[in-house]
Amino acid sequence: MLKLDFEESQNIEYKESWRDEYLKWICGFANAHGGKIYIGVNDSLEVVGVEEANKLMEDIPNKIVNYLGIVCDVNLFVADSRNYIEIIVEPNNMPISYHGKYHYRSGSTKQELNGVALQQFIMKKTNVTWESMVLDLATFDDINEDSVRYFQRLAVNIGRLPKSCKDEPAEQTLKRLHVMTPDGKLTMAALLLFGKDIEQWCPNAIFRIGRFGVNDGDLISSDDVKCSLIMMPENVMQILRNKYMVSLIRYEGILRKETLEVPEEALREMLCNSIIHKDYQKSFIQMKIWNNRITLWNPGLLPEEFTVETLMESHESNPRNCLIARAFYYAGYVENWGRGYQKIKEEFALANLTLPTFEIIRGGLLATVLREKFMSLKEGGTQGGTQDGTQDGTQDGTQDIDKWIEFVIKQNPKITTEEMSHICGKGVRTIKRHISKLSHIKYVGSGYSGHWEILEKSEK
What we know:
The strands form five sheets. Strands 9-8-12-13-15-14 form a six-stranded mixed beta sheet, covered by helices on one side. By secondary structure, the chain is α+β, with helices and mostly antiparallel strands. A hairpin with a 2-residue loop joins strand 3 (about 75-80) and strand 4. The chain is built from 16 helices and 17 strands.
């Protein structure tokens, strides 16, 4: 039996005889990158031939047109007195269905698309992005005009929009950003960037922060940031500064200067990148804070042509959500040239700190930042812990907890025991128990108007 001298390819199928169900394979090729189907050839590339070849040469093209609405080249060949048929399928710019079902060729398999995968496929084929979808049920009453004014001030102050834009109607600003259609319809991007209740339109549009102790099961406290995206970077930074991270205090003359333990511009860049590149059809952004490190996980894979190494090199800007990225650019949150990760590297190098690491894990990008300055303050405490967080620098003795309490009080005499708990990674009851045994620390006044004092003898 004659064997064809064909190169193996994942875009080629071999069938010994024709069946109408093979229209699904043609549909899958058309929706993907195209391909070829050979009828009358087995998987060993041997020509077994087909019967009634002339009838098939008439039936197959007609069925492709009638059931799929596309035209394919169908060719008849003869090898060793046996007829076989070649069907050449070109990739189609529009989504193709067979009996209302959408099939897609992936690797050497055919898959039926459903749910989110089908939605993403159709949007990609029709050149419609998720953020640009028009939501007919949304009205301008769903927009928080304070968020729009906040954006206008940022964009004008940084010089990326003219001064006249500072007082222009909110609708005009949304149209300027292409997140509102000319006839006043709102897109998903408009409701995420400036919406009053972004969870109403996208339940996963949350930035979740958690403070952990020994491991992932030891959650001490958490916050969910649910504001409009344009206000989210500053709101997250404010919560981190006030509740979860420490600032190192120094004086320039009589001026008190506070420097966040992690380079603030780099941290802000990482937060903005996570918001811009997030896949909003998946989970929420998760920031986990331990004693020795901070992790930031952002759902969504990198673009096909990108790797983690690509991010750290000079590269073109390629945001997942272009409309959101555009607004962030005008607001001055990010640059427009793909320099975000270069900026992060520069800021950490300038602060003489270890560069963050990045890896693809569980369908998203995970960034890990070591809390070197925070750990260096723990005199006599452990400096690291295992990578999985099971040690995590939290197994300190009584003396170390006492030192932490004294340290955070010196940083902020009006700090509450709950805030001490967030920063030190210990429960509120534990903090109160230790304070009760520290005779040199006193609370002066009552309620939130009072403050802590450390007696001088503790500093001798």
